Amino acid sequence: QVVESVVELVDVFPTLTHLAGLHPLHHCPSSSFKIELCTEGSSLAYLIRNPERDINREAYSFSQYPRPSDSIQENSDLPDLVDIHIMGYSIRSNDYRYTLWVGFDPDHCQPNMTDIHAGEMYLLAEDPGEDNNVFDEFDHATVLRKLGMLP
User: Fold this and answer.
1) How far is CA 61 from CA 6, 49, 76, 83, 97, in A?
2) Fewest beta carbons within 10 Å, which of 57, 61, 93, 98?
């Protein structure tokens, strides 16, 4: 069965917990470092049980991907916090996936959105495998406005 709603990875754990019949997870407070078990996601079991209900075609999912550098290193897929110097921020809708790779300060856990290292833009209807990066072919302000990131 196919579900065509946009979902986020953070929702997988509470969804599986719900489907397994376990107690619902508590939502994490803003400072959750000392909390043993909580979630920032929501159960999406209702989508699996009734995929036609509440399909939000204008929904977006957000992700971020840490990298130690612009080039591939031994720890590229699982860098320690101190080694993260580039962060990829992605927005995905049913139509697009847009990723911006920017400089990152691991000491303050802050991105530098003016230090752009690279970008990715995929038109999912034409390129569902995300093989053709058209980042350099687009007016980025128009794309960001469509994705709701600019007024």
Assistant:
1) 6, 21, 23, 26, 9
2) 57
